[in-house]
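Reproducibility note. Readers wishing to regenerate the assembly model reported in the main text can use the exact inputs given here. Chain order matters: entities are listed in the order in which they were concatenated for prediction.
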Amino acid sequence: MTETPLLSIRHLDVNFIMPDGQTARALEDVSFDVSPGQTIGLVGESGCGKTTTLMSIMRLLPSNGRITGGQVFYNGLDMLTFSERQMRDYRWKEMSIIFQGAMNALNPVMKVGDQVGEAILLHNLMDQSQANRRVDELLELVGIPKSRRDQYPHQYSGGMRQRAMIAMALACAPSLLFADEPTTALDVMIQAQVLELLKEIQQKLGLAIVLVTHDLGVVAEVCDSVVVMYGGKVAEYGNADQIYNQPQHPYTQRLLESFPDLNRTVDQGAGSDQTLASIPGTPPRLTELPAGCRFEPRCHLRIERCSQEAPKLIDVSAITAGKGHFAACHLCQGPEAAF
Amino acid sequence: MNEHWTLFKRNLQNFWGDFRGNRMGLIGAFLVLTALIAAVFAPSLSRYSPSEVIRDENGRGLTFAPPSVHAPLGTDDAGRDVWTQLIYGARISMTVGFLAGFIAMFVGSLFGITAGYFGGWVDNLLMRTTDVLLVIPDLPLMIVLVATLRQMQLKISPLTVLILVIGLLYWTSTARLIRSQVLTIKERQFVARARAIGAGHFHIIRKHILPQIMPLIVANTVLIISTAILVESGLAFLGLGDPTQPSWGTMLNFAFSRNAVTNGAWWFYLPPGLAIVWISLGCVLLGNVLEEMLNPRLTGHNLEDERHMVSIPAPGASSD
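Running the prediction on these inputs yields the following structure tokens for the assembly.
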């Protein structure tokens, strides 16, 4: 994290105004960096703010969402100060997104090839014939035969649709790619293919990828660093090695225990329990957040301080012998993170 | 270009294949087409002109003559051929119907799309305007409007007045229908994706929303045309038509005011009445069938329909 980051998010706060007038604090004090060519994973349970983070960066929140604080620097420029016109220019040319559920993100009455090329023509990057050639190249890159460019989304299989979405995301050669659960709703074989494709493309094109997922296995496979989110806040942030081998936040620890690990369970002796652990309880409702740590009601290691005071992000790099490892827990010792 | 043409031809063939199997649609198309042909080829379908008086050997006008070889549908009170008036009247009725229908469709789509897509105060403003127009009884409002516009001595023909008044009052149902459809489409994820690629409102509406509601607009237009023809007939019957260019409604008005009923001249008032039924029935049938065919939600899933299932011959089977 010594080089200048491509994208750096600082203290991002997002609120949603609910229909009954309540305010839901969807994101609070979210900070992380994405370096060029890096893959960063955003993990957490449903509703913990992963997608909201992406949409806030793209400034595509639903109409009841408000960014109430923080900065989003892209190449050193704060995108939150951009006008809508400037922002439109940045979308897709600088950063693109692969949506969750490709069937819904494709227009059912438009040919796939046209949809892949839509952004190119929209940003006036090329004329029609060049754009056609580019679409052919893109489809080839993701392994879709050229002959199928004039077909409609319903004629594609699930995996092909997802690959078409990836081709679409690459259309304007962005530097940053957001992948919002790109493998959800796909079977395991296709999941593996799609991830393989993402990795391959990243190597070829040198993109930075922000991968949103709740699948820790996927994260371990492809990510350089990981942001673990809980209830709209960053619980732990570090590189993949630190997060997997020396998790500092109780939530991360429990989350890792609740995933099957082929290397772990076999010889743990008769004493250890063989069932997979789960975290009791549910994530907090964003309109009724606990006063202290958001994980406190479900935490197995809670101390009295947890219910009174929200923990700050602590730099725990000293403990885990590395750098850039942060956790938001009162049990962690170290200096406050200097974001 | 050539490719597009073949694709278009194939789509058209598929459409016709589906359409052919639908008896109601065929009847509707037949009714509308015959009326259109009669209107277009009116001069070659009759020996007379609409204002020409048919006279007997003594040079006296044949008034209220029953159908005969000279006048296939008899004559009116002034001895003019009813058949000729009917087919020339089709021109007027259908011109008014089609133009007013298109205006209504255009205004309705514009209001519906704008209100549905932008939402918020725009939606409120446009929809409250629509509500106001919806609660005012149409017929009295139109009578007042047409009469007032006539009085103002504007340099527009009475027919144009009719077209504008009908067109600008009958878009309300279209607007509401299209708004509701746009509301569901704009929440779909591909619209969010279009925003994410940096598309502006105009691009999203043109490329992503319009193609999805086009079937609805087409089907609705056909239905609106039939309403417009009916309304025009009603207004013309009440004497608000153009007497120099008689439509079917004007013919009914003449028949009524010149005592065709008491004279037992059924050939004077039945044909225009039946013609109105003919064209509106045709439009309604055609509109319903088009809506059914073009609106994917009203048809079953392709695979549920056995006709669409593809059977693959066994490897050993001979192919023909």
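We highlight two features of this model. Chain B has twelve helices and no strands. The first helix of chain B runs from residue 2 to 20.
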